[in-house]
């Protein structure tokens, strides 16, 4: 039985993909289903936390008791997260945020032409990096979805984004990553420690992660 060890705590979670419009009918996005973030929201609520979930477009039911804010683009997600970070005790960024968006969003549907075409992209804001700069008391946890060099890339991100922990997520394995019910993760800590796990349910990953978050909150007092 899991205790209500997050009673009185406010947890802010982002989940799912973002969509960046090309024209009124097309967009750039990624394969995130939202499952990992929603399982963390469900688990945190179960453990007594007041949970706010900022969610990109997904086909999942919002867990009972969780406050969900639906967003579409990176800019909307950034605004929703930044305006709620100050009061949060922990922020967990599971969302797969688009790193680029079309430079111009066409007002009308782009018509097929007889020649090839190119879409120019602008770089998006890195929401997590900005959170890392702004954080005061919050426990800040990121995810890193990688197809290769998991440890190296995760360690770079933990430092660059000023995180308290990062979840290295292997993608490209049928038991792990986008859209699956199971996941293969490694927790990386700023002091160099790492905790690799076998494939387990995303609900189990959620509870393992929250165990660490509870520990980090205790240290912070
Ligand atoms: O949704 P599911 O289908 O269940 O899949 C789960 C998942 C694979 C999406 C999830 O477990 C995961 O790994 N999420 C992070 C995906 C990702 O975008 O990783 P990244 O390495 O590109 O980004 C690193 C971190 O920075 C992430 O916490 C991300 O939210 C954040 N970020 C990235 C870019 C950006 N512009 N802003 C950000 O905040």
UniProtKB/TrEMBL annotation:
Listed pathway(s): Cofactor biosynthesis; coenzyme A biosynthesis; CoA from (R)-pantothenate: step 3/5; Cofactor biosynthesis; coenzyme A biosynthesis; CoA from (R)-pantothenate: step 2/5
Cofactor(s) recorded in Swiss-Prot or TrEMBL: FMN; Mg(2+)
Catalytic reactions on record: (R)-4'-phosphopantothenate + L-cysteine + CTP = N-[(R)-4-phosphopantothenoyl]-L-cysteine + CMP + diphosphate + H(+); N-[(R)-4-phosphopantothenoyl]-L-cysteine + H(+) = (R)-4'-phosphopantetheine + CO2
Keyword check for Cell cycle: no
Chain positions recorded as CTP binding sites: 99, 109, 143, 157, 161
Keywords on record: Decarboxylase, Flavoprotein, FMN, Ligase, Lyase, Magnesium, Metal-binding, Multifunctional enzyme
Keyword Metal-binding annotated: yes
Domain of life: Bacteria
Cofactor note: Binds 1 FMN per subunit.
Region feature Phosphopantothenate--cysteine ligase, mapped onto this chain: 11-221
Family membership noted in the UniProt record: In the N-terminal section; belongs to the HFCD (homo-oligomeric flavin containing Cys decarboxylase) superfamily. In the C-terminal section; belongs to the PPC synthetase family.
Function: Catalyzes two steps in the biosynthesis of coenzyme A. In the first step cysteine is conjugated to 4'-phosphopantothenate to form 4-phosphopantothenoylcysteine, in the latter compound is decarboxylated to form 4'-phosphopantotheine. Catalyzes two sequential steps in the biosynthesis of coenzyme A. In the first step cysteine is conjugated to 4'-phosphopantothenate to form 4-phosphopantothenoylcysteine. In the second step the latter compound is decarboxylated to form 4'-phosphopantotheine.
The protein's name: Coenzyme A biosynthesis bifunctional protein CoaBC
Highest classification ranks of the organism: Bacteria, Pseudomonadati, Thermodesulfobacteriota, Desulfobacteria, Desulfobacterales
